Amino acid sequence: LGRLDAYQTVTLGGTLGGTFSLTFNGQTTVSMTGTAVTAASLQSALETLATVGAGNVRVEQFTSGAAPGSP
Predict the structure, then answer these.
(1) pTM for this structure?
(2) Cβ proximity of 4 and 23 under 8 Å
(3) DSSP state, 47?
(4) Whose CA is closest to 67, among 25, 12, 2, 24?
(5) For an engineered disulfide with 28, which of 19, 23, 38, 40 has Cβ 3.0 to 4.6 Å away?
(6) Buried b (16+ CB within 10 A) or exposed e, 27-62
């Protein structure tokens, strides 16, 4: 990632049953299973979107506490 154009936060917590998808600029990721999603699988799903593209997103996973930069 070079210049940062946008910063988005998605918080998943509690018991993650079922499936979910994310939509960005009108394009939607494949359905992901809440209990099996990882930072790498979420990043891969986002990179397949034409509105994102490979190498244009970074997903980080925090297991406890606040993410860096959070108030």
Answers:
(1) 0.76
(2) no
(3) H
(4) 12
(5) 23
(6) eebeebeeeebeeeebbbbbeebeebeeeebebeee
